User: What shape does this take?
Amino acid sequence: YTLPILLGELALIEGGWDVRNLGPNLPIRSLARAIASQRPRLVFLSVSNAPDPIGFIEEIAVLRASARSAGASLILGGRGLTQEIRMRLSDIRVGDCLVDLADFGRTVFALKCD
Assistant: This one.
């Protein structure tokens, strides 16, 4: 579960980002608190497994609110994002592969530098 995070980190570093990797298995509410205190421009989350889709969606609402308050862009990815979850997260950017993260990172980075 660490590999997707590290690959995402490398893709963003290649795109010019200063990445803060908070590690795997971080509770979403802890990530939301980190967003509030560190105020990043971009947040990505790799989801390997979401055994309780409804609970996960509720937790993501907290993450979304924290990201919006901090002015951060949010992107999710990973094999744990089932069709059911994706349909309920229509207002959040979801990537299907590492290239999607890299492309989104370039877009946000360009906006950040303007």
The CA atoms of residues 55 and 61 lie 10 Å apart. Residues 53-70 form the longest helix (18 residues). The first strand starts at residue 42 and ends at 46. Helices lie at 2-14, 28-38, 53-70, 83-88, 98-113.
